[in-house]
Amino acid sequence: xxxxxxxxxxxxxxLVVLLLLASGCAVRLAYDNVDxxxxxxxxxxxxxxxxxxxxxxxxxxxxxxxHRRDHLPRYxxxxxxxxxxxxxxxxxxxxxxxxxxxxxxxxxxERASRPLAVDLLTSLSDAQVxxxxxxxxxxxxxxxxxxxxxxxxxxxxTWQKDTASRFSRFSGRLTADQRAFLTRQSLRYQPDTVLWxxxxxxxxxxxxxxxxxxxxxxxxxxxxxxLSDRREAYQGEELTAVWASNRALAAEVSAWLINSLTPRxxxxxxxxxxxxxxxxxxxxxxxxxxxxELTEDLCGLVLQC
Length: 305
Prior knowledge:
By secondary structure, the chain is mainly alpha-helical. The protein has 16 helices and no strands. Helix 9 (about 125-150) packs antiparallel against helix 12 (about 195-210), helix 10 packs antiparallel against helix 11 and helix 12 (about 195-210) runs antiparallel to helix 13 (about 215-230).
């Protein structure tokens, strides 16, 4: 995962990043149940044995405890400073800088998680590797299918609705002018999901090839790290250009929307940021309750954020 890979999709810009762990009780749920959430995600691709599952859960919990201690206080500081930083207006350059800060944190997490990934991947049987390849191909096909069936206008309307929904999570209901602005700006959006799926497939093909050499754990770990650091090389010119265009669009749109906030929206926007900062800070000093249960409805809340 490179900065370009993580930051290029418009979904990664300011408000989307801030919603990664949702807010309120969803933050607590994400942490207190992270081993189960991670296992559920991985189980879409790998049917783990009991031994693999036990080791995976323990390593995820260890990784997330590190993240709780090391990252969450930084998130809280960052969020607490945003209302004042944005009070006098913002622009696309400042929004890009905000996103790049969060991207750097995401890269730290990805690198810290590599030993866990290597441990699981090197433990896979031949049958599990074969199943993984099949599941990855099916996932890419599903990812591309919806967009492939849409017209350009439909994709642009989807972008518009998604952007409005994400921003309104912080600002509240958008004004007529804000909605009209998004309608106009949506015409600049370029569909990227089909290209993204193809890029994923290229990278995954080399990962599957690397898995053929997984018996030498040290060599595999080094090769996996190199492969992870070279994701940008798999993007291709078309996807790189589309992502750059959409990234610029998202930054400009985010800046305009923030600058257009009404006094009531600004109060809600700033309050949402500060509430999320408080949640992160409180969670950074807490301990997960191993007896917490994750209900299906709450799981859906967390996973949708």
